[in-house]
Automatic annotation (TrEMBL):
This is ribonucleoside-diphosphate reductase. Pfam families: TSCPD (PF12637). It catalyses: a 2'-deoxyribonucleoside 5'-diphosphate + [thioredoxin]-disulfide + H2O = a ribonucleoside 5'-diphosphate + [thioredoxin]-dithiol. Its EC number is 1.17.4.1. The keyword Nucleotide-binding applies. Residues 1-26, 117-139 are annotated as: Disordered. GO terms for molecular function: nucleotide binding; ribonucleoside-diphosphate reductase activity, thioredoxin disulfide as acceptor. It comes from Palleronia aestuarii. Belongs to the ribonucleoside diphosphate reductase class-2 family. The keyword Transmembrane helix does not apply. Coiled coil: none annotated. Keywords: DNA synthesis, Nucleotide-binding. Residues 15-92 form the TSCPD domain.
Length: 139
């Protein structure tokens, strides 16, 4: 049996400039929320932070809850957890068709973090003015 840790893993501090990708995520209620995902420069496929940018009524309780959820998920990622590690502990809601979507917006956020980014063609990224690959840039 392993002993409990007396302190968390050290926090992985993100550099001021890092790869960021903005994605639209559909909610079960029909909204599309925008999430900006920051990636680890040393492990470019590993998300280390997430920010909510738009989708719910400004100033609403739901907007604040999603913003706070993003902060908490970011802290988990920066302390070494991977999205799949977080996702397996979140609630799911069994549907009549047998599907098991996440029961909260937190689950949707973590599920999106677990999705791989689309592959980028460096020439496309340099020449395109918009697109999924172009959204991943140093910040």
């Amino acid at each position: 049996m392993t002993a409990y840790k007396t302190s968390p893993d050290p926090r992985h501090v993100m550099p001021p400039r890092r790869l960021t990708e903005t994605r639209g995520v559909a909610t079960p209620e029909g909204h599309t929320i925008s999430l900006s995902i920051g990636f680890d420069p040393e492990e470019p496929d590993r998300p280390r932070e997430v920010f909510y940018s738009a989708g719910f009524k400004s100033g609403s309780q739901l907007e604040f809850q999603v913003q706070d959820a993003c902060v908490l998920v970011s802290l988990l990622l920066q302390h070494g957890l991977r999205p799949a590690d977080v996702a397996k502990s979140l609630s799911r809601d069994e549907q009549p068709d047998g599907s098991m979507p996440y029961a909260s917006h937190i689950g949707l956020i973590v599920e999106e973090l677990a999705r791989p980014s689309p592959p980028c063609d460096p020439l496309e990224t340099a020449s395109a003015s918009r697109g999924a690959c172009n959204s991943r840039r140093g910040r």
